[in-house]
Design brief:
Shape: globular
CATH superfamily: Flavodoxin domain
CATH class: Alpha Beta
Structural class: alpha/beta
Helix content: 25-40%
Number of strands: 9
Bound molecules: flavin mononucleotide
CATH architecture: 3-Layer(aba) Sandwich
Number of helices: 6
Order of helices and strands: EHEEHHEHEEEEEHH
CATH topology: Rossmann fold
Length: 174
């Protein structure tokens, strides 16, 4: 399999925990986990396949260009570079909390997607809306999430099985 760059932010929480679970389905040669704060957008060209892992922690996380806002900085740089990513394949996963944020469940995945969609990536690994209990999500289109929606706060017990199933989809689509 062509090498995967698994790029995550933030670190030390559920996004990183999910990344380690995903990595377990591959050999070390097949996947690198990278901290978004150390990656420039053009580094994505070094990988044939890309996974971006994020969480939803409110609008501020996205809309204010602060030092804490690594996704904003990353995508802002991507807009400036204006590189053609030549339909490079990218899959998304997002952490959220469907009980406490039922109207914004994993909204952040949509923000990642909408930023990528300006730069000629090909999205793979969309995920069926089944087994969840929420009201609204920006990341839902035609009853599919833009990528794997994970809720470790309320449903961690199903996460391993969901990740295993999603990785099988990726192995076919990458
Ligand atoms: C301040 C705050 C705001 C949050 N807002 C949302 C939200 O709008 N939608 C959602 O699905 N989850 C929301 N969450 C839940 C987180 O996405 C969830 O706990 C996730 O697992 C955090 O992963 P991380 O620790 O790796 O960032 C929020 C959590 C916090 C602390």
């Amino acid at each position: 399999m062509k090498k995967i760059g698994l790029i995550i932010w933030p670190l030390k929480g559920n996004v990183e925990k999910a990344a380690l679970k995903i990595k377990n389905h591959f050999t070390n040669d097949e996947i690198d986990i990278l901290d978004l704060s150390t990656v420039k957008p053009h580094h994505l060209l070094l990988y044939e396949n890309i996974i971006l892992g994020s969480s939803t922690v409110g609008a501020d996380h996205w809309e204010n260009a602060t030092d804490d806002n690594k996704w904003y900085t990353f995508f802002h740089q991507m807009d400036i570079d204006n590189v053609d990513y030549l339909e490079k394949k990218v899959a998304l996963y997002g952490l959220g909390d469907q009980v406490n944020y039922p109207h914004n469940f994993v909204d952040g995945m949509e923000r990642v997607y909408s930023n990528l969609s300006k730069h000629n990536f090909k999205l793979v690994g969309e995920w069926e809306n089944k087994g969840y209990n929420f009201q609204d999500s920006l990341a839902l289109h035609d009853n599919k999430f833009r990528g794997l929606a994970l809720d470790f706060d309320n449903d961690e017990e199903n996460a391993d099985a969901m990740i295993a199933e999603w990785v099988e989809i990726l192995k076919k689509e990458f």
